[in-house]
């Protein structure tokens, strides 16, 4: 318990006494927000989850690969 | 932005069969390249500067000198800026896997799972724990524990790099796996074959050691700027940092040359087409010379079928034979040999592209027939021969997607010139770092005691400017290495198993193009912010 408290204090004091670190953490926060709350949600869906459905991925990929072997990709 | 627009125009010019329009696969490749190149701006500086600041802190630990403590803290601050800016830039690559490269992701999932999971755990626990001690722990933990944390931060980042490079190496040289036609995935048969593949070991050594050059070039460039600006308060720190930077830089650039030679030898063994493209070697043979320079048009794939060799070629006799086979007279296949088939040194015959394409189609047909038979509930006796056919032809599976053998030849100009830029700049670094150490040893040039109180001579100013200019050159050198590694393995995402055209998801080019431009804007903004913060901190100097 004492050790846990010491670890907590260590991080707490460290974060509180940051100067440049505050700016850097702010940038990291903004960056992670853009990546996970905007890009991932609106622009990067899981293609297989959307198109194949759970448990049918193998079948979907097999069909896709077969199709690719027969005809070129759409432009 | 202008450079990127030109690159896209160049890409369009190389696609006459599509009327110059970029397809989904081209946009997905461009987007992946953009993201990986951006990510790679931060990683090598983390690995290189991490090593140098750990060396500096070791000096503090040994001497107890306040000077080394302040110096270490200054470089750790710059390390922190780079580290914060690089955080999570690699995650975008995983988004792209799921959206743009879904066939590929499914096909390799089992193999990548273990290395990437280990990378995630190591990166999270080691780096986040020890980075915290490194920044928050001054005066709170013992000097020894703090030093250990700094070294472990660097080690954690290097181990992280190891697992990422294991995953990349598996794509270049797929080992330790077996394809399961029921799950449509490659499944790991030997973790150690994947984790300790000789290709991965070479790649790790070459990549991390060359990253140290960037750390060294960064330290030397910043130190040179202080000396150029005659900042007296930072003079001692600049001189001592410059010396450490030059020593690390010289060792790293010589190490990168040695490991690069070993990597090229491995490439010759497992990716001969990449080597042929790097060398613009159209027709191979024995006693092959190493091309120093040749007039390769950067904007046009050469006519390798008709031309005997690259025009205006200056070369080192027998050089390529030695590099690729470790023998003066060794046989090195050229582009046409690989397309037409050839006999290897050990007597085995490498089939022609046409035969491989035929066998690839046989594998794909056997796979489809097997899966159909299983769906229809066929018995073992029916499916067994189909499985046997698939297994026999599986090494050429990817060739079944190739429509024209020209697709098997990577874009030679990029490989040829990127390789020469990498080697040329790498050699320049050896010379420059050696020159700096010579000046330091002899106390000449800007390192002469007399330079302290006098105006810098033109020669000294020029030397310091070269030191600054070489920093962007170090990045160009490092990124060129990646261009060679990744352009050279085209058309494959997984060597011989899966080409990019089969790996990409069935998505519209417009959708990928949109996110490409979004990324470009986002990355440019973030980079501008990073450089701004970094420059401000450098201008501020070690004083807090």
Provide a descriptive summary of the structure in words:
The complex is a heterodimer of chains A (75) and B (544). Chain A is an all-alpha fold. Chain A folds into two domains: 44 residues; 31 residues, no CATH class. By secondary structure, chain B is mainly alpha-helical. Chain B is 69% helix and 4% strand. Chain B is built from 18 helices and eight strands. Chain B has a two-stranded antiparallel ribbon with strand order 1-2. Chain B has a two-stranded antiparallel ribbon with strand order 3-4. In chain B, helix 3 packs antiparallel against helix 18 and helix 9 runs antiparallel to helix 15. Chain B starts with a helix and ends with a helix. Classes of the chains: A mainly alpha (75), B mainly alpha (544). Chains A and B meet through helix 1, helix 2, helix 3 and helix 4 of A and helix 3, helix 4, helix 5, helix 13 and helix 18 of B.
Describe the structure concisely.
The complex is a heterodimer of chains A (75) and B (544). Chain A folds into 2 domains: 1-44; 45-75, no CATH class.
SSE order of chain B: HHHHHHEEHHHHEEHHEEHHHHEEHH
Order of helices and strands of chain A: HHHH
Radius of gyration of chain B: 25 Å
Distance between the termini of chain A: 62 Å
Beta-strand segment tally of chain A: 0
For the terminal residues of chain B, how far apart are their CA atoms?
A: 36 Å
- Unreliable runs of chain A: none
Strand percent estimate of chain B: under 5%
Keywords summarizing the entry:
heterodimer, A: 4 helices, about 0% strand, B: about 550 residues, mainly alpha, two-stranded antiparallel ribbon, disordered N terminus
Describe how the helices and strands are arranged.
The complex is a heterodimer of chains A (75) and B (544).
Chain A lengths: L1 H15 L3 H24 L3 H5 L5 H14 L5
Chain B lengths: L1 H12 L10 H40 L2 H21 L4 H9 L2 H35 L6 H30 L4 E4 L4 E4 L2 H5 L2 H31 L3 H39 L1 H8 L10 E4 L20 E3 L2 H7 L9 H6 L1 E2 L5 E2 L2 H23 L4 H14 L18 H31 L15 H30 L4 E3 L3 E2 H4 L5 H32 L4
Antiparallel strand pairs in B: 1-2, 3-4, 5-6, 7-8
Helix pairs in contact in B: 2-3, 2-6, 2-8, 2-16, 2-18, 3-18, 5-6, 6-8, 8-9, 8-16, 9-10, 9-15, 10-15, 13-14, 15-16
């Amino acid at each position: 318990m004492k050790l846990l408290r010491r670890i907590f204090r260590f991080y707490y004091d460290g974060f509180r006494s940051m100067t440049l670190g505050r700016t850097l953490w702010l940038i990291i926060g903004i960056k992670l927000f853009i990546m996970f709350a905007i890009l991932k949600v609106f622009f990067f869906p899981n293609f297989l989850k959307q198109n194949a459905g759970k448990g049918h991925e193998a079948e979907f990929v097999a069909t896709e690969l077969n199709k690719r072997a027969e005809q070129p990709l759409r432009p | 932005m202008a450079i990127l627009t030109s690159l896209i125009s160049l890409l369009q010019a190389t696609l006459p069969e599509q009327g110059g329009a970029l397809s989904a696969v081209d946009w997905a490749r461009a987007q992946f390249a953009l993201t990986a190149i951006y990510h790679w701006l931060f990683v090598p500086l983390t690995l290189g500067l991490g090593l140098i600041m750990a060396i500096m802190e070791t000096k503090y630990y040994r001497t107890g000198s306040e000077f080394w403590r302040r110096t270490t803290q200054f470089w750790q601050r710059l390390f922190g800026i780079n580290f914060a800016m690089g955080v999570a830039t690699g995650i975008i690559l995983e988004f792209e896997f799921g959206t743009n490269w879904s066939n590929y992701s499914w096909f390799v999932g089992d193999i990548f799972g273990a290395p990437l999971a280990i990378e995630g755990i190591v990166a999270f626990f080691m780096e986040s724990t020890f980075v915290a001690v490194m920044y928050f722990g001054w005066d709170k933990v013992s000097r020894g524990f703090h030093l250990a944390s700094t070294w472990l931060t660097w080690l954690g980042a290097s181990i992280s790099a190891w697992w990422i490079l294991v995953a990349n190496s598996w794509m270049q040289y797929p080992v330790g796996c077996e394809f399961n036609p029921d799950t449509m995935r490659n499944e790991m048969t030997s973790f150690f074959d994947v984790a300790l593949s000789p290709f991965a070991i070479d790649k790790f050594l070459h990549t991390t050691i060359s990253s140290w050059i960037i750390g060294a070039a960064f330290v030397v460039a910043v130190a040179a700027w202080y000396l150029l600006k005659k900042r007296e308060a930072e003079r001692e720190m600049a001189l001592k940092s410059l010396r450490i930077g030059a020593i690390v830089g010289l060792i790293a650039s010589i190490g990168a040359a040695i490991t690069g030679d070993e990597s090229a030898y491995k490439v010759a063994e497992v990716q001969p087409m990449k080597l042929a493209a790097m060398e613009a070697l159209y027709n191979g043979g024995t006693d092959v010379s190493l091309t120093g320079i040749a007039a390769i048009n950067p904007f046009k794939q050469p006519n390798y079928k008709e031309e005997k060799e690259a025009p205006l070629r200056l070369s080192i006799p027998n050089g390529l034979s030695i590099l690729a086979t470790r023998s003066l007279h060794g046989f090195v296949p050229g582009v046409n040999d690989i397309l037409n088939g050839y006999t290897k040194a050990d007597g085995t015959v490498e089939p022609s592209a046409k035969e491989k394409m035929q066998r690839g189609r046989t594998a794909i047909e056997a796979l489809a027939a097997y899966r159909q038979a299983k769906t229809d509930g066929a018995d073992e006796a029916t499916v067994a021969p189909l499985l046997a056919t698939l297994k026999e032809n599986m090494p050429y599976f990817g060739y079944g997607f190739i429509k024209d053998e020209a697709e098997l030849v990577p874009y030679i100009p990029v490989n040829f010139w990127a390789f020469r830029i990498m080697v040329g700049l790498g050699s320049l670094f050896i010379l420059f770092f050696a020159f700096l150490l010579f000046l330091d040893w002899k106390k000449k040039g800007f390192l002469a005691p007399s330079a302290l109180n006098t105006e810098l001579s033109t020669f000294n100013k020029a030397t310091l400017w070269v030191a600054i200019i070489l920093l962007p050159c170090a990045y160009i050198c490092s990124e060129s290495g990646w261009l060679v590694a990744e352009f050279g393995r085209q058309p494959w995402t997984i060597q011989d198993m899966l080409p990019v055209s089969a790996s990409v998801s069935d998505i519209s080019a417009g959708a990928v193009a949109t996110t490409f431009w979004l990324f470009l804007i986002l990355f440019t903004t973030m980079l501008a912010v990073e450089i701004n913060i970094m420059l401000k901190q450098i201008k501020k100097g070690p004083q807090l």
